[in-house]
Amino acid sequence: MKVVLQNLTKIFPSRNKKSGEEVVAVNDFNFEIPDGKLIGLLGPSGCGKSTTLYMISGLQKPTNGKIFFGDDDVTELPTEARGVGLVFQNYALYPHMSVKQNILFPLQNLKGKDKMTKEEMLERAVSAAKLVQIDDLMERKPSELSGGQQQRVAIARALVKMPRVLLLDEPLSNLDARLRLQTREEIRRIQKETGITTIFVTHDQEEAMSISDMIVVMKLGVVQQIGAPQDVYDNPVNLFVAKFLGTPPINVFEGRVAGEKLYIGEDAVLSVPGVADQEVYIGIRPEGFELNENGQLHCKLKNVEVMGRDVSIVSSNDASLNSIIRSIINADNKVDLSKEDITFSLKVHKVFIFNKENEERIYFEVN
Amino acid sequence: MVDSKQQWKAWLYLSPAIILLLVFTVWPIINTVRLAFLEGYNALEATWGATYNVGIGNFTKVLGFREFKTCLVNTLLLTVLTVPISTILALLIAVALNSIKPLQKFLQTIFFLPYVTNSIAIGMVFAAMFNIIGLRPDGLNADSWGIINNVIMFFGGEPINWINANSGYWANIAVMTVYIVWNALPFKILILLGGLQSINKQYYDAAKVDGTPRRRVFTRITVPLLSPMLAYVFITGFIGGFKEYSSIVGIFGEKMGPVGDPYRLNTMVGYIYQVLPDTDYGVASAAALILFAIILLVTLINMQVSKKRVHY
């Protein structure tokens, strides 16, 4: 089922009646989510990603705009008529019911022609439980399960009525680091197996990048960029997106363009054909550095962290906006720690420049 | 754990409360048990050093009284009637209160007002509402009908002699039930409303996504999640019900019954008070212990039942 969001806007009335300031949680969101894909809504807290999810679920009404599932306009439909499965951030499993009762609950609500016999319901519940691999825990209470198992029960409960769209609110935030890695693969597998269009919300870019078919990066209610994770990473449209994606984060410098040359401090690091003279921000991905004694960028060497396959060089430069510059290079390169200075040359497609006023990307020709 | 050298300080600070509790709570309990087993005990003689036989005579005496059986039946009847009714009503009112936004605090205050009002005073008001002044022998004419009978007559019904001389037993019980339920509601509403407000809203969102009908949300989600509070008001309701006394005094006065039939509505606690002025402390103590045993038994049964039905 493809999901279309048209000019979707959500304005919350002000809490403070005197000031009367409204909060625009989601502003003019347009997006067509292709059928059967896994989509990650990504952004810092307060960016409107959860609000968007709840509007798709129907638990919140949009102030403006429309939502379509396929060709059906569901904007005015109540939650229960939309056929969505929703997994809450803290799962919201009914604590007094066993796993089996929890999974059966949505089926028992079905009425009219959808009404099922007990055997059919049980069969569906068991197959949903099998899909998320909890079929041996059916008689347990939620309190007797680990966080990861509860998560699976919540997914099974959302999937059992075969929703048109599956929505996950911060699905991994309550899990520990190891379980998180495992569960995100699990979500990917379940989504692939069922082929249900799935939208999930996260503030963790690594999580979103690793499993999504497409990511939507949001900031303060406004969509910044939509695309395949690698495309967004390789081609951020503005400084916010560039900074938000990637671990370790991108290194940002203050610099300027003069005579089609890009300067960091006094170092002319790149030629940028077609860019007018101006002050800019320069973003360089950690993997965009190369050790080169004749390189253009001069930095002060601080430390080298060994990570096995790679080494992470920590250095500093007066023009850097971060207190340190982190560059990742192949471990085959030997770094002489006794030296105070280190020089890099830059990989041109890992360097982005941004307008200093509006922080929008400035494109230049790459030979 | 506090350093053992410092513990004397803790004991010092606790001592005022401990001494008062020992003198006015613990000793009286022990003394009650002692008196209950002393046959023919007389407080006045006891001060002159009289000694008494130890035995269960007081208990057989209590159980042998015809009056005691009346008290037991009245108490059980009122408890079994009022506790379920007041709990269910309180639950419905609490759910309704919880689901409205405007005036919620205002209505909450109104529902709580009876709790801070003296129960004897409320009883007198209720008595006035059910009262009939100057009833003629034909039973259909009087100088003044209470408001309840006025309402009944307004809708074309025949007036009922609720609490006056020659009134029926079940009419009396009906009045007591209404009054006790009304009196018990505020506390129960308060507890249940607090419980409702502490239920995570996400369960209701989840139920909504799953298209759960309202009645099912109530029976399958609200009630189970509220069950610890329901068990609490139910058990304390039973304990309170067995100690029913002042409400009867409030309606019928110290004679515990309509004019011409005193002590018809006497209760267990009423019975204990009744034998006390005869300085029959032994019998009163035995009755108190019997009441204690009944309350203990019922509470244990309640807790056993609730173990299966309450989800913590």
- How many distinct helices of chain A? 9
Pair with the biggest interface: A-B, 23 and 18 residues
User: pLDDT below 50 for ≥5 consecutive residues: which ranges of chain B?
Assistant: none
Percent of residues in helices of chain A comes to 10-25%
CATH class of the largest domain in chain A: Alpha Beta
Number of strand segments of chain B? 2
The helix fraction of chain B, in percent, is 55-70%
Mean pLDDT over the full residue set of chain A = 88
Oligomer: heterodimer
Give the CATH H-level superfamily of the largest domain in chain A. Answer: P-loop containing nucleotide triphosphate hydrolases
Overall structural domain count of chain B = 1
N-to-C terminal Cα separation of chain B, in Å?
29 Å
Q: Main sheet of chain A?
A: 6 strands, mixed
Shape of chain B: flat
Q: Rg of chain B to the nearest angstrom?
A: 24 Å
By CATH, the architecture of chain B is named Orthogonal Bundle
Strand content of chain B: under 5%
Strand residue content of chain A: 25-35%
Biggest sheet strand order of chain B reads 1-2
**CATH structural class of chain B:** Mainly Alpha
- The parts of chain A where pLDDT drops under 50 for at least 5 residues are none
Structure description:
- The complex is a heterodimer of chains A (367) and B (312).
- By secondary structure, chain A is α+β, with helices and mostly antiparallel strands.
- Chain A folds into two domains: 3-243, 3-Layer(aba) Sandwich (Rossmann fold); 248-362, no CATH class.
- Chain A has helices spanning 49-57, 79-82, 99-108, 118-131, 147-159, 177-194, 205-211, 229-234, 239-244; strands at residues 3-12, 23-33, 38-42, 64-69, 72-73, 84-87, 165-169, 197-202, 214-219, 222-227, 251-258, 261-264, 267-271, 278-284, 289-291, 297-306, 310-316, 325-330, 341-346, 351-355, 361-362.
- In chain A, strands 6-7-8-3-9-10 form a six-stranded mixed beta sheet, with helices on both faces.
- In chain A, strand 12 and strand 13 (267-271) form a beta hairpin.
- In chain A, helix 3 packs across helix 4 and helix 4 (118-131) crosses helix 5.
- The radius of gyration of chain A is 25 Å and the shape is elongated.
- The relative contact order of chain A is 0.12.
- Chain B has a single domain, classed as MetI-like (MetI-like fold, Orthogonal Bundle).
- Chain B has helices at 7-36, 43-47, 57-64, 66-99, 104-112, 119-130, 147-154, 169-197, 201-209, 214-242, 246-252, 268-275, 281-309, and strands spanning 132-133, 144-145.
- Chain B has a two-stranded antiparallel sheet.
- The relative contact order of chain B is 0.13.
- The interface between A and B is medium-sized, with 23 and 18 residues.
